[in-house]
Each structure stands twice: as structure tokens, then as C-alpha cells.
Design a protein that fits this description.
single chain; about 375 residues; alpha/beta; three-stranded antiparallel β-sheet; about 20% strand; globular; binds nicotinamide-adenine-dinucleotide; binds zinc ion
Length: about 375
């Protein structure tokens, strides 16, 4: 999978996110965790303390390597555990973590290190954004989804019972260290879930990436580390460029990254968070592509190609039968992707072609939802 143009240093892919004084580097390489201490020291000057936020499960697998590498800096890290799973991304949990930061004496000269998947990253990022009106933080993503997507771009948030990510802030990390070796311990279904976001990038921005995904499915799903490293670097490059153009998501450019998320978030919520984020996004992309095709914007052959790739990866593309359309619509109305009362969709116009963002009439949404079930 030869796709990456990101700078390479000692076999390490380095992707820069250029945002003026909020710029940072993403390092992607197997084993980079062992150099975390050295790199944090290089990139974050005058650090006096670290607080690692992670879950007990993730810490038991990868915490040892991180702490050993932080030894190089001569500063002993403090540890804050959050329970595993999406249920941790709450206002209450953020408040509890902040209480621990206060008790530990974490101040402006400290840095927070998020070790984990998107849940830990979003929560730790949110806490870093609001604690003392903002402290620096480093992302050490350990799921594919977090390595290709959630650790980059500075969107941090917690969920509300009425919707996902309803309370959040933009707060860029100071450094991202992605170690694809951590994916060796990731359950296969989590790896597959992360691939949904890679398909998203390919459809909204890069035909070559789509071709490479089609050609490398076995290696990717089989956790071939070198293929995954190339994929992560490519996805980071694509996301970095969108974020640079529209950091705060207010110019309708970064919004393309929400492809599949209008319906995806609603499916995730309605499943009681039983359906993984990436799986829900796969279903959401399928509905959005169907919608685009029914509106004459997407060639049906391209819709079929996307559908085939998602299925070959092992991702769901059909809405669960039990999910009621009216409830899905209600949840979509509460989500952030609504403008002037109408639900907005990122619609593909071809694989790798720029997307269009449109308010879509409910009648068409309902038909696409129905179609997505009928073919199940
Ligand atoms: N901020 C953003 O831009 C953004 C983008 C996409 C998704 N997200 C958010 O990301 C979250 C989903 O993230 P996720 O898919 O990483 O889920 P997750 O963080 O819940 O991790 C999935 C599971 O994998 C386990 N795990 C993590 N790393 C592991 C490893 N190396 N080995 C073994 N097990 C490991 C975790 O303990 C957890 O049980 C959602 O809340 C979503 O909203 C945010
Ligand atoms: Zn997502």
C-alpha cells in the first residue's frame, strides 16, 4: 500500500497539522510508544508534571511501555482511570476527573496524556480544554479509529442523554503519537470499526485510497502492521488538510468529515450505544450514498462499489429492523447537523470526489431509510 507522501524520519511517518500557534505533529510508527518520553520532552517544553488519563483495561496492556518511556524525562506521571466504554463520555465523569486533577495539583505547566481509544481521547481532550481554561494535552491513540480520526483535529466532547457530543470544545492536542503496534491487542471488531472512518476519507477525498482499501482488505483486517501504518498516515494527512482549511467547522469544508454521521450518530444513540461508532458510520454512509443516488447526484455503480467495500471489510450497511424511522428522525433533529430546522447531509458525488452538503426533505430521508432496510 504505497500511498503516503508524509515526511519520513527513521521510518516514522510525520504529518504536520498547520494551525499557526496551535500547530502540532502526528508521529506514526510501530514502537513509537517507547519514544513517547523523548518526543514529549522535545515538543512540549517546560513540562513539570504529567497526568495520564486512561482506562484500567488499556493501562494494563499498554501503560507499562508508556510509563517506562516517560521515565526518560525524570518526571513521574500521575494516573487517572476512567471506566471503559462510551458511557464514560459524560459531564459527570469529566467533573470527577477534574476533581482528581485538582487533588493531584495538576497546573498550567502540566500536561495531560490521553492513552486509549476515541472515548478516552474525547473525554481527556474535553477535560484539558476546560480545566484551568485549558491545559496542554498529548494524544496516544490505541484504537484504529482514534489513530485515523478522533485523536486529530481538536474536537473534544462528552455526550448528553439527548445526543452525542452535545457538550464540547475545540482544543488541539500539542502532539499525537500513534503506535500501530498497539492495534495487535485490539479486538478484530474494533479494528473493523476503525476502517469505516478510512472508507469515509476515501469516498470524500481520495480515489487512490479507495482503490488501496479494496486491494488490501485482507492485510488490513488481518492487522498487518506495515499496511496499517501506511493507512493511518494517509488518513491523518487527509484529515489534517480539512482541519487546516476549516479548524472550527464553520465554513462547510470540515463538515465533509461528517459523511455518514448524520444517520450514524442517530443509529449509535438509538442502539443504546451497542452499535460501535464506526459500524454506525458505515450504516450512515450507506444511507447517505443511497440518498445521493436517489437525488441523481451519485452514479448507482459508485453506490454499489462503496456498499461492496463496506461489506467485504465486515461492516454493517443495513439499518437494524428494530429501529423506528420516526425516532431516528427525532434524534437527527436534536443533533448538531441541523440548520434552520432541516436535517443536513454530506452527500457523495462520486468516489473520491468533493461532497455536497444539503438540507434534505424528510420524505427523501424516510425513503432512503426504508430502502436501507428493505435490502437487508
Ligand atoms: N473527536 C473526534 O474528532 C472523533 C472522531 C471520531 C470518533 N470520535 C469518538 O470516538 C469514540 C469511539 O472511539 P473508539 O472506537 O476508539 O472506541 P473506544 O475508545 O470505546 O475503544 C473501543 C474499545 O477498545 C478498547 N481498547 C482500546 N485500545 C485497545 C488496545 N490497544 N488493545 C485492546 N483493547 C483496546 C477499549 O478499552 C474499548 O473497550 C466515540 O465516542 C466517537 O464519538 C471522536
Ligand atoms: Zn466518526
Amino acid at each position: 500500500m504505497k500511498l503516503v507522501t508524509a515526511a519520513l524520519e527513521d521510518g516514522i511517518h510525520i504529518v504536520k497539522v498547520n494551525l499557526g500557534n496551535r500547530s502540532y505533529a502526528i508521529y506514526i510508527a510501530p514502537g513509537i510508544m517507547d519514544r513517547a518520553g523523548q518526543l514529549i520532552k522535545r515538543h512540549l517544553t517546560s513540562i513539570q508534571r504529567y497526568a495520564i488519563i486512561t482506562s484500567p483495561e488499556i493501562y494494563s496492556i499498554h501503560g507499562g511501555a508508556l510509563c517506562k518511556s516517560l521515565d526518560d524525562t525524570g518526571i513521574e506521571p500521575s494516573l487517572i482511570f476512567v471506566p471503559d466504554g462510551e458511557e464514560s463520555k459524560t459531564w459527570d465523569e469529566a467533573g470527577r476527573v477534574i476533581g482528581e486533577l485538582v487533588d493531584l495539583g495538576i497546573d498550567k505547566r502540566s500536561t495531560i496524556i490521553a492513552l486509549g481509544g476515541g472515548v478516552v481521547g474525547d473525554l481527556a481532550g474535553f477535560v484539558s480544554a476546560i480545566y484551568l481554561r485549558g491545559v496542554r494535552f498529548v494524544q496516544l491513540p490505541t484504537t484504529l479509529l482514534a489513530q485515523v480520526d478522533s485523536s486529530i483535529g481538536g474536537k473534544t466532547a462528552v455526550n448528553h442523554t439527548k445526543g452525542k457530543n452535545l457538550m464540547g470544545a475545540f482544543h488541539q492536542p500539542s502532539l499525537v503519537l500513534s503506535d500501530p503496534n498497539t492495534l495487535k491487542t485490539l479486538p478484530r471488531e474494533e479494528l473493523v470499526s476503525g476502517l469505516a472512518e478510512a472508507v469515509k476519507y476515501a469516498v470524500i477525498a481520495n480515489t487512490k485510497l479507495f482503490n488501496a482499501l479494496e486491494a488490501n482488505i485482507d492485510k488490513l483486517v488481518g492487522c498487518d502492521i506495515s499496511t496499517l501504518s501506511e493507512l493511518i498516515a494517509r488518513c491523518c494527512e487527509i484529515k489534517a488538510r480539512f482541519v487546516e482549511l476549516d479548524e472550527r467547522d464553520d465554513k462547510d469544508l470540515r463538515a465533509a468529515l461528517n459523511y455518514g454521521h448524520t444517520v450514524g450518530h442517530a443509529v449509535e444513540i438509538l442502539s443504546g450505544l451497542e452499535i460501535r461508532h464506526g459500524e454506525a458510520v458505515a450504516i450512515g454512509m450507506s444511507v447517505a450514498a443511497r440518498l445521493a443516488s436517489s437525488m441523481g447526484m451519485l452514479d448507482p455503480a459508485e453506490l454499489d462499489r462503496q456498499e461492496a467495500l463496506l461489506k467485504r471489510i465486515g461492516l454493517p450497511t443495513e439499518l437494524p429492523q428494530r429501529m423506528d424511522d420516526k425516532t431516528l428522525l427525532e434524534i437527527m433533529h436534536r443533533d448538531k447537523k441541523v440548520l434552520d430546522g432541516s436535517i443536513r447531509f454530506v452527500l457523495p458525488t462520486g468516489i473520491g470526489d468533493p461532497t455536497t452538503i444539503r438540507s434534505v426533505p424528510e420524505k427523501l430521508i424516510l425513503r432512503a431509510l426504508e430502502d436501507s432496510r428493505r435490502e437487508a
